Amino acid sequence: MLLTVDMGNTDITLGFFDNEELKITLHTLTDTKKTQDEYLSLFKMLFREADISYQKVSGGIIASVVPSLTERIKSALESVFSFTFLLVAPPIKTGLSIRIDNPLELGGDLVADAVGTKEKFGFPSIMIDLGTATKVIVIDQEGSFIGGVFTPGLKVSVQALVGSTALLPDISLKRPKKIVGRNTSDSMNSGAIYGCAAMIRGLVDDIEKELGYNCHRVLMGGYAYLVKDLLSSDYSFAPDTVLNGLRIIFERNVNEGEKNHAQ
Hints:
The protein is 39% helix and 24% strand. It is of the alpha/beta class. It has two domains: 2-87, Nucleotidyltransferase, domain 5 (2-Layer Sandwich); 122-242, Nucleotidyltransferase, domain 5 (2-Layer Sandwich). The strands form two sheets. It has a six-stranded mixed beta sheet, sandwiched between helices. Strands 3-2-1-4-5 form a five-stranded mixed beta sheet, sandwiched between helices. Helix 4 (154-163) packs across helix 5 (184-211). The longest helix is centred in the last third of the chain and has 28 residues, at 184-211. It is globular and about 55 Å long.
């Protein structure tokens, strides 16, 4: 089995693949205050509860957007499995052409998103990744990553609103049945969720106008489930895209290494 790890600012997602099939997905909160030993204990507990056999896991790869935590997580996992994890960072081979001002700025999660999207949906594609930030990113008609649009994510937006006002309460994200809220909680949720869906529709339409051609539209990320039913059937819901992208990147590097070794 292969272990793929997506380290985000809010959550850490671990996906176990048997060949190309995602068999098990585990989640835990990202906590930069935790030590390596604390993460080691946490992972062992998660794996025990999920009945993961360490001996069946033969490889691993990590994408991280939390640099201060990357080495702690990587070392903790390597202590569990006794092999070296690949990290989505130079000089790893991704097979992705990146045409932005500074390719080194691009997070490993977006690289994996793009690789997974190209493999499943082809190109040109617009990926909408709803996580801590909402990212609307573009693979052009030549298959190159050319950039995108970043906005505050759903939860971040609500937290900013609550933190900047005296009377608005903190809320749990839940889509109201109607756009026009009749109470404070519904009105805030409506603004966050229906507002996000409207923003996505507008941005995607404007991006396609700027590009001059239509694209595959792919919805992913931890909060995507909140807006997927508010978008048309032109949008494909693919929540595991980043994990599948990590699997593909791992296979490209392992297969390349085996080929070079054979030569």
